[in-house]
Amino acid sequence: MLEFIILCVIVVVGWFFWKKKRARKHNRATPSVAGRQEPIINDDVPIPVIKRTAPDQAELNLDPLDMPIESEEEQRISAELDAALGALQTEVKDEVAALDIELDALHADAAELDAELVTLKSDVTSFNAELNSLETASHPPLKTNQFPPVVKAESTEETAINETNPDPDSEKAAGSKGEADIMMIAFAVMSQVGRTLSGEAVLNLFSDLDLTFAEGAGFYLKADAGDMENPLFTVANMVTPGTFDPTIFVAETTPGLLLFTRLENDNAAWEKFSAIAETAEELAEQLDGVLCDEQNKAISASRMVEIQNEVAAFVANHG
User: Cβ–Cβ contacts within 10 Å for residue 238, how many?
Assistant: First the structure.
């Protein structure tokens, strides 16, 4: 487009200078009038007398535009330049009109994009609201009074955990110790929002952390020096009924894991807490999950310190 405009300017300037040169040539080509002959002063030679006649009136009524008459070549060149200039002017007008049409189309596209942007912002706001509601629905608060008891590894079917109908003998044993002598500790390792934990990754990590599967109960246990009769803590699945079947779970996913234990008035209380807290933090880090408390709230560094202080107070009072 720029080259085309430069070409138009060159043609117009050339035409202008050609017209100017033609006008100069016209001014120099006016007919000459015979001047008066100066007499030669000589006493011996008589001075001739020149008689002049008035010019014809038709010769005085000359049209300056008709002098001099252009040659056929000059007329042809002038006509070609005029035609080229007219064509260039027409083409420039057409190009400007096309550019105006393109500019109007760009303005219309920009208006459509602005409208789409407003719609996208509204959709993002709606999506965030839905995401928050889904997060609340998928991660309900945990209830500590619904935790199953800590499982001991036994081969008989009587060791299977029944959350709704606990063993009466177990209730009597707990009641004999008293509510103040027992402290429930629970941690949840939840998946990130919109994601789940891979069963295969969970089982591999269980193996790395020396967690043992309790065949009769379906839970994973952490035992000190292989003492499966008195595990340090238990790991349950967040999917009902909370148990694991390693042969199936390896191909499944879960929204989270639940780690829990009971601290009693014995010397193992602090050891149990340290073991369950360290394992929960390791699981959350390795599985890219979120470490939460029994209310399903993410545990901050300050909240962890508070829990440690509570356990320390319990150990001091019952140690």
Answer: 17
Q: In this structure, how many other beta carbons lie within 10 angstroms of the beta carbon of residue 263?
A: 22
Instruction: Please name the residue that has the structure tokens 């509510």.
Output: 179
190, 290 contact by CB (below 8 A): yes
pTM here? 0.47
The one-letter code for the residue type at 241 is P
Q: How far is CA 72 from the centre of its chain?
A: 72
Superfamily name with CATH number, domain 144-166+178-318: ZipA, C-terminal FtsZ-binding domain (3.30.1400.10)
User: How far is 254 from 296, CA to CA, in rounded Å?
Assistant: 16
Domain ranges of the chain: 1-11+70-138, 144-166+178-318
Could you tell me where the beta strands, DSSP code E, fall in 172-267?
Answer: 182-190, 197-198, 212-213, 220-222, 233-237, 253-254, 256-264
Indicate the length of the chain as a whole number: 319
pLDDT in tens, 87-129: 888 889 888 989 989 889 998 999 888 888 888 887 777 776 6
Q: What is the pLDDT of residues 123-166, one digit of tens each?
A: 777 776 666 555 544 444 444 344 444 444 443 333 333 433 44
